[in-house]
Design a protein that fits this description.
Helix content is 16%, strand content 32%. It is an alpha+beta fold. Strands 1, 2, 3, 4, 5, 6 and 7 form a seven-stranded mixed beta sheet that branches.
């Protein structure tokens, strides 16, 4: 019989791939590949950065039916002093990132594969897609 600790551990995602638990034939979540990032590379000039993102990574939500590859930036926002996930990334260049909502973020330091899985779950639930994809119910 599983202990309470084992049962609680099973509820929490252990990797990006473990976040989507339903409709896995409809979507996939993974660390972004060069093929997904390269088309977003462009010069980014002007504008004030909304935040400085450290311990960052690009993740991609692939929508099977439309073949869309939506890239997001996740990491620690040093400006806001909290874990962060942006809207869809629209441009990457010169250590900066632009998003679909018109925000500019500055990348600090190197990328990481150690991302806040619970924050990613909470963000997708906030955006209304977490339940459909069977993501663990994380809210804060």
């Amino acid at each position: 019989m599983d202990s309470l600790e084992d049962k609680l551990t099973q509820l929490l995602p252990q990797s990006l791939d473990d976040i989507i638990r339903s409709n896995r034939d409809k979507a996939e979540l993974h660390f972004s590949t060069d093929e997904e990032i390269n088309p977003l590379c462009c010069p980014i000039v002007g504008g004030l950065a909304k935040g400085r993102i450290a311990d960052w990574a690009f993740i991609t939500l692939c929508i099977t039916e439309t073949q869309q590859h939506l890239v997001y930036l996740v990491g620690f926002n040093q400006t806001e002093k909290c874990t962060w996930m942006t809207s869809v990334v629209t441009g990457i260049g010169h250590g900066k990132v632009t998003t679909a909502r018109g925000s500019i973020y500055e990348l600090v330091g190197d990328s990481t594969l150690d991302v806040d899985l619970l924050h990613i779950c909470a963000t997708f639930h906030l955006w209304g897609v977490g339940r459909y994809l069977g993501m663990p119910h994380i809210f804060y």
